[in-house]
Amino acid sequence: MYVFIEALQSTFLAGGSVMLPIILTGVIGFYYLYSTWMRIGGDAFRKDVYMVVEMLRNDLNIRAEDPLRFASKHLGLRGGIVSRELRLALNVAKDTPEKYREYMQVRMIKTVQYMRQGTHIISVMAAAAPLLGLLGTVTGMVSTFEVITLYGNQNPVLMADGISEALISTQSGLLVAFPLTLLKQRLDERIEYLTEQLELGATIIENYMSLQATPKAT
Question: What's the predicted TM-score (pTM) here?
């Protein structure tokens, strides 16, 4: 463990002055990535989120006695942002059905904004990390040429520091940017999928309310 820490420390020092901002971009990017996954909750990794909507459809179409209350109770047994939001929508539809459409229009916007909160910062950090690495490349090469100017190219030991700074800073920037970019893409896809499921569930509830409001033929 001590050897590993010492190796990290020597790498950090060899990378030059840009290593600190590169590390900061990584910390900030991964922090917002983690916090977004936590806000989404259990639905962030579930493969059966679509079952929430199917369960809601079945409860409203098949259940004969008080389907709204039963579907709300059923959703409450399952965690995740989709179940929570659809349960809130059911409660509004049950208590104040005339306000359901207006509620869902506003609530859907707020929910999507809630899930996407801070994701733009992840993109900024993923874009900034390789640029900082490129800056480290430039500063490292400048240091190398300064050494060549002063001492010539006969002493490779003196030139090694500048070259090492250039390579390590570039590598560090890419190591931060690569996983951030991939995970951000995965996060965007997940948020889009959850939004689709929320819209589908809201439409199912609205259709049910419309059918209940339609006078039945005698």
Answer: 0.83
